[in-house]
Amino acid sequence: MSLGLYYYLQLTALFIMLGWNLYWVYRIGQLNNAPIAIMAIGAYLSSYAVLKWGWPFPLAFVFAIICGATFALIPALALGRAPAFSMVIATIALIFIMQTVFRNLPWFGGSIGLFGIPKIKSLLWITYGFLIFFGILIYRFDHSRLGRAADVVFEDRDVASTLGVNFYLFSVCLQVMTGFIGAVTGVLYAFTIRTVIPVYFGFPFLLAITTFIFVGGYTTMWGVIVFTPILWGIPLILPENLAVFRNFIYGALLMGTLILRSEGVIDRRFLKKLNMSVRWVVNKISIKNQKM
Amino acid sequence: MKTLKVVSIVFIIAFAGMFLCFAGGAKEEPTPAAGVEKEEVMAEYDVWVNEWVFPSSNIITGVSAYHGMLNEFGADMAIEDINTAGGISGKPVRVRWYDEGTQDSARAVAAMSSMLDMDPLLVMGPCSDVSVRAAVPLAVEEGVYSMCTLAGYPMAREFTPMTLSFVANDWDQARAAVYKWVELVPGMKKVVHFTAPQSGTWMSIAKAENSALHDHEIETVDIAVPYDTVNYGPIAVRALGENADGMIFTSHPEGIAKIIVELHKRGWTDNSKFLLSQAAPVPELWQIGEGYMDGSYVWMWFDPNSKNPRWEKLSKRHEESFGAPASFMMVWKGYDELYLIKKCFEDLKITGNPAKLKEERIAIKNYMNNCSFESIFGHVKVVDGVRQNPTLLFKIENNRLGEKLVVPLDIAM
Q1: How many other C-beta atoms lie within 10 A of the C-beta of residue B7?
Q2: Which pLDDT score is estimated for B400?
Q3: For residue B400, what are the β-bridge partners?
Q4: Chain B neighbors of A120, CB-CB under 8 A
Q5: Interchain pair B116, A4: CB under 8 A
Q6: How deeply is A56 buried, as exposed, middle or buried, from its count of CB atoms within 10 A (0-12, 13-18, 19+)?
Q7: Which residue from A185, A227, B79, B402 puts its CA 20 to 30 A from B208's CA?
Q8: What H or E segment, with its residue span, contains residue A280?
Q9: What distance, in Å, lies between the first and last C-alpha atoms of chain A?
Q10: Which residues from B are below 8 Å from A236, CB to CB?
């Protein structure tokens, strides 16, 4: 496999995981950017454990994930009832706080960061294993009574509470779950890039992921899966002279999508139509086979 | 609603079309540099390629895209001059640009992996700290030499001998500059240091400057200047509150200029007690700080007032394009990289033959780590992958770099 393809696949998988992080909490109407901060925690702690304490990768992995998910609980408890806008602002602030903390802690290398992280064999397989696991988890959530409860909460919190949905508990649980995914993504990112600097975990991530999710569609988990590889791959696919207009293309796509399909390209109606079309084709084929 | 949608689509398509059609502009016909005559250069050995294509990782998008534009600007001029003079070993040169984004590690890694897939003899770039740290390990593993010429001391050392840096003796230079400044402005007991914690390179320079101040038993107080500061007044007030005798600015030019303006508005008068670090003298500094900068000292590792005809041509072209003479390193980075490549390839008789790729990569690495070449400022040496620059201390006069002092590095050793 060529290096370009390897990193394309690896980074695409990580972006999909991050996209799902945003998607999952947004199911209840809260746009939570904290997973990027948790990602920094996962990346730093796992790198530190491997480099300074000499821990094996699996142990460092588990340690970083436990710490990340535990840390996710702190903002989750405070922001559990926050309205969507407050959540966005508070969690963006959390990203900056986390960057500043890591920049000012000398044992994490300050602004120079940690480097020389060892290469892990089969990282691509590990990453895709986690991607499939998280995909199944979110799919099961979406198709369970919890998913239906999330739909009601998204539409109206008060109605949801009259139906017995504890919004606060729901929100805290989802934020901790996305913290868990964020920490896993952080560890995998650190061992992919093999260095960590505070500025890695900042706005470029946020902007990219927001574009992927809002263009792809924020009402289903499939929008991120389909559009992350496309949007992330734009500069790699386009000719040299056009690839530099990446940000312009992202912006135009985002504008166009918000105007034409406010729920993103792949929304529930689209999936329903797709489902019906597939069934129609399958029926046609089976009828044809019966006649024969 | 439907009309609105149609109008929106038409608007977006029209805007996209116009942007893509006209954003590139037109390129001038190449003209040879002063002193460069067009000549037919015939290679005395068998060059395998028809054209030399060098992949370069550059900051093309994001808030620092201006830096990437300058890099491309200088490289374009070098390409014109080199091709007009017969290319490298008789073959024309081209640079293929890859976008590393602004402080975007994922994009930097994607750019580097795409470049390495070309099986290059070497790669130019990456440019920023973040990209160097993220992407150069890939090149090192593949045995490809990286001309990440802006990598400061900590990073250049980390990847030696697989990288070339034009700036990595900044520790010695920064110390020498401070030693000279303290000699010129005696009697200081306390100095406020404006730093940029976001940048590893700048922080290492700030550390060197502080160490030189401590050698003179001068107390230092660091004040961080975030890139996204809107109001610089509070930073200036805090600095004045320290009752310091002098101030060193190791931060981004816009911030430096705005802080100096704020300091003057609050009563500061003696500019000789300001020392600005090397990255400062760019058009932003002159425009924002106009009327407040004269008398300050700036230390640099190259001379923007150089009389070298190649530099004068580049600087003049820069002034025509950007409204101020060239004074920022990014503008000659790509230029000097290409001239160093030219010398290296012609001296080593590099063929570009894929069958010899491995041995030619090793030869290039060994050559570039210790060599000398004619840079845009004249003859320079590279020792152990680090370009040996002089330390120059300028005084700002009439809102431009004025009187120059050449400071020997051993002053601080």
Answers
A1: 11
A2: 85
A3: B397
A4: none
A5: yes
A6: exposed
A7: B402
A8: helix A268-291
A9: 45
A10: 110, 114
Domains and CATH numbers, chain B: 47-167+308-376 (3.40.50.2300), 170-300+391-412 (3.40.50.2300)
Cα distance between residue B209 and residue B277, in whole Å:
9
Q: Determine the distance in angstroms separating the CA of B37 from the nearest CA of chain A, rounded to an integer.
A: 31
> Quick check: B390 contacting A, CB < 8 Å?
no
Pairing of strands B145-147, B190-195: unpaired
Between chains, do B62 and A247 touch, taking CB under 8 Å as contact? yes
**Chain B residues in contact with A204 (beta carbon < 8 A):** 62, 101-104, 106-107
A221 touches A139 (CB < 8 A):
yes
State the pairing for strand pair B297-300/B93-99: unpaired
Confirm if A20 and A224 have CB atoms less than 8 A apart: yes
Per-residue pLDDT at B29 exceeds 50? no
Amino acid of residue B411: I
Nearest to B149 by CA among B163, B135, B161: B163
Interface check A186 vs B, CB under 8 A: no
Average confidence score pLDDT of chain B: 84
Return the closest-CA partner of residue B409 out of B385, B390, B387.
Answer: B390
How is residue B140 written in tokens?
């090192």
Inform me whether the C-beta atom of residue A262 falls under 8 Å from chain B C-beta atoms.
no
**What is the per-residue burial (b if ≥16 Cβ within 10 Å, else e) of B77-116?**
bbbbbbbbbbbbbebbbebebbbbbbbbbbbbbbbbbbbb
For B:44-83, CB contacts with A below 8 A are: 60-62
> Which pair of tokens denotes residue B190?
């306390």
Residues 196-215 of A with CB under 8 A from B: 197-200, 202, 204-205, 208
Residue A92 sits in which domain range? 3-291
Which pLDDT tens digit goes with each residue over A101-160? 888 888 888 877 888 899 898 999 999 999 999 999 999 999 999 999 998 998 888 898
pLDDT band at B24, cuts 50/70/90?
Answer: very low
Count of domains for chain A? 1
Provide the ipTM. Answer: 0.80
Separation of alpha carbons B337 and B334, rounded Å:
5
Alpha helices in B266-390 (DSSP H): 283-288, 309-322, 330-348, 357-369
pLDDT of residue B6: 61
Q: How far off is chain A from B43, nearest CA to CA, in Å?
A: 30
Most B CBs within 10 Å: which of A193, A205, A240, as the mutation test of the B interface? A193
Whole-number Å distance between alpha carbons of B272 and B267: 15
B154: phi then psi, degrees, rounded to nearest 5 = -60, -40
Task: At A3, list the tokens.
Answer: 């290096």
Chain A touched by B104 (CB under 8 Å): yes
Residue of chain A whose Cα is closest to the Cα of B201:
A112
The pTM for the full model equals 0.80
- Distance in Å from the first CA to the final CA of chain B: 74
Contact B113 A246 (CB under 8 A): no
- Residue B80 has a pLDDT of 94
CATH number assigned to the domain comprising residue A84: 1.10.3470
